[in-house]
UniProtKB/TrEMBL annotation:
One of its GO terms (molecular function) is ATP binding. One of its GO terms (cellular component) is cytosol. It catalyses: dihydroxyacetone + ATP = dihydroxyacetone phosphate + ADP + H(+); D-glyceraldehyde + ATP = D-glyceraldehyde 3-phosphate + ADP + H(+); FAD = riboflavin cyclic-4',5'-phosphate + AMP + H(+). Its EC number is 2.7.1.28, 2.7.1.29, 4.6.1.15. SUPFAM superfamilies: DAK1/DegV-like, DhaL-like. SMART domains: Dak2. This is Triokinase/FMN cyclase. InterPro entries: DhaK_ATP (IPR012734), DhaK_dom (IPR004006), DhaL_dom (IPR004007), DhaL_dom_sf (IPR036117), Dihydroxyacetone_Kinase (IPR050861). One of its GO terms (biological process) is carbohydrate phosphorylation. Residues 372-570 form the DhaL domain. Keywords: ATP-binding, Cobalt, FAD, Flavoprotein, Kinase, Lyase, Magnesium, Manganese, Metal-binding, Multifunctional enzyme, Nucleotide-binding, Phosphoprotein, Transferase. Catalyzes both the phosphorylation of dihydroxyacetone and of glyceraldehyde, and the splitting of ribonucleoside diphosphate-X compounds among which FAD is the best substrate. Represses IFIH1-mediated cellular antiviral response. Gene3D superfamilies: 1.25.40.340, Dihydroxyacetone kinase, domain 1, Dihydroxyacetone kinase, domain 2.
Length: 577
């Protein structure tokens, strides 16, 4: 079965992709009749060396994303994973020559089709009297024994584009640029790894991997790698890759050792999430620095992909200060990242957390009785939430992620751990403020934020008084904050429904002669409101995106809130008995 692709046609996808890039980038122009993109300011390059590169499509943003001042003059694109036509390469050479450039350097990745087609175009152009040189880049560090075909051209080619572009922009001649980038290419290596294959439009995946396997040392055309290894953690994968790339027993290794200075590229092969890419980048930086390697620059992103392949490649380039200046030189190429021109290694990466404001002393702590009661209440709440974990998760699965019970259990365990550190403050205002900070830090999700908001706001009325009217006012303040920032209202099928019902009953605390019996009514109203959410259409939260026909269970947040109120009531009743 062929994979789904958002294309207009298989035959025209390469043309459409290049046309889309040019349409959105005023710095590029298409060469009429050819799948060629050139700098739109081509006529301003008189007297400079032109740089042309290219290859099959499917490697975006390579190569057209690297056309611009300070990088490539133009690119020639083939069909997906197919070398470009000789006629188009020759047309691009002629176009830059007729614009007044003083020679052309072809930067070619080491694949048979690319070498042949670019080489043939070069010979034809030279026969026409156009000065053309060609460098073939092979930066693959996968093969421990070099083959006759040599090392494949991979993501390191982009660094060659950058170095050559900076030299050309500085007015360096064709022969010198050719010699210098050829030397740079010898100090570079790339290794790829993928979690699964990719598929050319109109075709099936190029290879299959089992669920516990990854492919090491693969190229950028969907071909299999040199080793199939077991799935491991990101740290272990990166360590393995760097070991392979730098081992002296590997004939294609990069001679990186302690004290070396490198540019690191962490390249997304097309389908890896940015979250995973960040994890890989962190692992690579830590591993290299642990080996005593100095990272001069780190480039992280998608530079040379293999369609939608979920994988990465790591590139290491040995650098000195003159080479680093070329890497840092300005460019208008849209796909080149805006990298800070400072060393990565040695930079302070963590800022001290701000000092917490001084707390007012807990004036009621000396009594002890209130603090002990608070402990009993919190312990009962925690036990209740832990006991409801699976039930709440089951209710939450109707709305998608099924983690409401897990989130509340996380909060319960955080509170239990906090209680072990010492008695909580007896001051209700300080207690609620402390709980707010704890839940905001440990609970996570929207529930953590909502409980944090509720408790922070509820604490304010309790700073002056702690009588029953003050507790009613605290409930009002908490509900108001939840509605203001959570955008939920009573009847929206959220945790607010339970709390709102309880809050309405607690209004009676503001009347003379009020007593704890009102809390009993409040809890029963909360439980009834929680059950009533079964028949409500969700108006807020993630559940609001789910068809109401599928929500035939009460809202888990409302159930949890009612259970918390019930636990509080039971402890207070037992204390009065």
């Amino acid at each position: 079965m062929t994979s789904k692709k958002l294309v207009n046609s298989v035959a025209g996808c390469a043309d459409d992709a290049l046309a889309g890039l040019v349409a959105c980038n005023p710095n590029l122009q298409l060469l009429q009749g050819h799948r060629v993109a050139l700098r739109s300011d081509l006529d301003s390059l008189k007297g400079q060396v032109a740089l042309l590169s290219g290859g099959g499509s499917g490697h975006e943003p390579a190569h057209a994303g690297f056309v611009g001042k300070g990088m490539l003059t133009g690119v020639i694109a083939g069909a997906v994973f197919t070398s470009p036509a000789v006629g188009s390469i020759l047309a691009a050479i002629r176009a830059v020559a007729q614009a007044g450039t003083v020679g052309t350097l072809l930067i070619v990745k080491n694949y048979t089709g690319d070498r042949l087609n670019f080489g043939l175009a070069r010979e034809q152009a030279r026969a026409e009297g156009i000065p053309v040189e060609m460098v073939v880049i092979g930066d693959d560090s996968a093969f421990t024994v070099l083959k006759k075909a040599g090392r494949r051209g991979l993501c390191g080619t982009v660094l060659i584009h950058k170095v050559a572009g900076a030299l050309a922009e500085a007015g360096v001649g064709l022969e010198e640029i050719t010699d210098r980038v050829s030397e740079v290419a010898k100090a570079m290596g790339t290794l790829g790894l993928s979690l699964s294959s990719c598929s050319v439009p109109g075709s099936k995946p190029t290879f299959e991997l089992s669920a516990d396997e990854v492919e090491l040392g693969l190229g950028i055309h969907g071909e299999a790698g040199v080793h199939r290894i077991k799935m491991a953690t990101a740290n272990e994968i990166v360590e393995l890759m760097l070991d392979h790339m730098t081992s002296s027993s590997n004939m294609s290794h990069v001679p990186v050792q302690s004290g070396s200075s490198v540019v690191l590229m962490v390249n997304n092969l097309g389908g890896l999430s940015f979250l995973e890419l960040g994890i890989i980048a962190d692992a690579a930086v830590r591993s290299l620095e642990g080996r005593g390697v100095k990272i001069a620059r780190a480039l992280v992103g998608t530079f040379m992909s293999a369609l939608e392949m979920p994988g990465i490649s790591l590139t290491l380039l040995l650098v000195d200060e003159p080479l680093l200046k070329l890497i840092d030189a300005e460019t208008t190429a849209s796909a080149w990242p805006n990298v800070a021109k400072v060393l990565v290694t040695g930079r302070k990466r963590c800022r001290a957390a701000p000092a917490k404001p001084l707390e007012a002393p807990d004036s009621t702590a000396a009594g002890g009785a209130a603090s002990k009661q608070m402990v009993l209440v919190l312990e009962r709440v925690c036990a209740t939430l832990l006991g409801l974990e699976e039930h709440l998760n089951a209710l939450d699965r109707a709305a998608g992620d099924g983690d409401c019970g897990t989130t509340h259990s996380c909060a319960a365990r955080a509170i239990q751990g906090w209680l072990k550190e010492g008695p909580p403050p007896a001051s209700p205002a300080q207690l609620l403020s402390k709980l707010s900070l704890l839940l905001l830090e440990k609970m996570g999700g929207s529930s953590g934020a909502l409980y944090g908001l509720f408790l922070t706001a509820a604490a304010q009325p309790l700073k002056a008084k702690t009588d029953l009217p003050a507790w009613s006012a605290a409930m009002d303040a908490g509900l108001e904050a939840m509605q203001k920032y959570g955008k939920a209202a009573p009847g929206d099928r959220t945790m607010l429904d339970s709390l709102w019902a309880a809050g309405q009953e607690l209004q009676a605390w503001k009347s003379p002669g009020a007593n704890l019996q009102i809390l009993t009514k409040a809890v029963k109203s909360a439980e009834a409101a929680a059950e009533a959410t079964r028949n409500m259409e969700a108006g807020a939260g993630r559940a609001s995106y789910i068809s109401s026909a599928r929500l035939d269970q009460p809202d888990p947040g409302a159930v949890a809130a009612a259970a918390i109120l019930r636990a509080i009531l039971e402890v207070l009743q037992s204390q009065d008995a």
